[in-house]
User: Fold this.
Amino acid sequence: MTTDEVLAGVGPRLRQLRKEREVTLAALSETTGISVSTLSRLESGLRKPSLELLLPIARAHQVALDELVGAPPAGDPRVRSKPIVRGGRTHWPLTRQPGGLQAYKILEPKRRQEPDPRTHEGYEWLYVLSGKLRLVLGEHDVVLTAGEAAEFDTRVPHWFGSTGEGPVEFLSLFGPQGERMHVRARPKGA
Assistant:
């Protein structure tokens, strides 16, 4: 539906709503502060609707602005990304916009690998969904299990992968330097 088609439907919708509620143009004018002639022109399509006019009308009728405008329903909210296989790992991109924070669901198969730490600009946050994820970060060599998270500056030498005991499924959020994910936790003693 085009913008012009949406706007053309506003007038008849306004008239129908007002009549269903048995409100006169004069009463609506008094409630909204919009002149009777402006309301009449809106309903007949002779005046283009604007937010300044629609907001007080929506308030007077106690309806959402979408109902007055007849906004088309939002598209399918599901993310349908195609998996990408890189270096034996399967990545499902969960974000679509270029740049900024990127999210991936990753499946690392069961395999033993020799860590090969790398560095690059950015900041990464990992969350293990299932299995065990080995993370080598600087001098640290840790194993994360389901429900555990790690965050780190990617300028620190790092590597992550399967422990070799089984596959691991995890989420990775990667962003430009300075963007951090914060896990909220209650302060000690609270």
About this structure: Residues 178-186 have pLDDT under 50 and may be disordered.
